[in-house]
């Protein structure tokens, strides 16, 4: 295949690898350029590696055929070529950005050493290298502070506690995972962490990172209170990695803007996964990234006129219309905590709410209904009904008006 028709994918994460493999199946070889040293892996399972439940090999993804290890540093749109850090140039017919996200580094005093690196003991939690670095540093009794109480911070705190660290979780807002959960479910997650020995501080803003000899020693709160720390984990959210696109002059808002065919403002460049912004939304979740990759594979295979090993040739009518993404978190192990949340979990005035709670078993189920439609729900500890509820939510069909089926949806464990 000449460089005029070649598909080049930047990024060998969940979306890039899925796309390259799917294209291979559809008879369109693609070159996937990824900067990470490790075999492609499932990022969603990094907390399980940190917790010591899985080895890195267990979370490896099947690598696509054309995988090159390099960091792309520039896009020459006029010449349709990308440049890599080692000086190589790679020509493309279609370029796909699957560059993922970067962790948000909060504006803390002392966060960077004079040569702009993180001090020893301070880690982001995004890559396998972050995970292995943390894993190496954690020992029973180590004092760890996790900054951020979203999905990432909760997973990291739990994993570190499981490895015997003394963990403090500092969350700026008033409750844990407030983007995904309602107050009751947040409270259950907090109780779960506390039960594992994690000290949870909410409405608590970290201001300062204190180091001695280039290594972290403590963190200081806005109210002046200082916590000793041998390890600090930054779990303050992510931002789409759109620098390459911006420098190349593509339209970028929060992420790289794409249409329903995952096309950027340059018709020869597409974008999928965490780096892409579709219809105003940057998802930052695995399911939309995979769905976008699947749609794009169909489109590119149809454009290439390929006839795949399975006799398929792509589907030119495939479109990405958005994902109604369900957030699911399993904190596995002995003290397992399963939770799932979708849509709007906090009702507006006038919404109907059905709630079932069992404080002995630590389970909680709630759904929010507006104008006979399921608009959101949250399940903690008891996920048997999640499949049926998610289907009712995704379908957005009106629910029968007598309320019976709703209760049935909440209690019928056979539906998933
Ligand atoms: C610890 C953790 C837990 C998570 N848990 C969940 C969860 O429970 N549920 C959920 O839905 N989502 C979860 N996520 C989010 C999920 O992992 C992402 O949404 C998903 O990985 C997005 O896939 P992606 O391919 O767009 O990006 P990524 O998987 O980040 O892959 C992007 C790849 O591109 C590479 N890259 C970037 N720029 C370049 C360049 N210039 N040259 C070469 N390579 C480059 C990066 O190094 C990276 O390997 C979690 C994330 C983390 C970090």
From TrEMBL:
Entry-linked InterPro entries: FAD-bd_OxRdtase, FAD/NAD-bd_sf, FAD/NAD-binding_dom, FAD/NAD-linked_Rdtase_dimer_sf, Rubredoxin_C
Cofactor or coenzyme needed: FAD
Positions of the NADH-rubredoxin oxidoreductase C-terminal domain: 338-384
Keyword annotations: FAD, Flavoprotein
FAD/NAD(P)-binding domain mapped to chain residues: 6-293
Protein name: NAD(P)/FAD-dependent oxidoreductase
Organism: Streptomyces thermocoprophilus
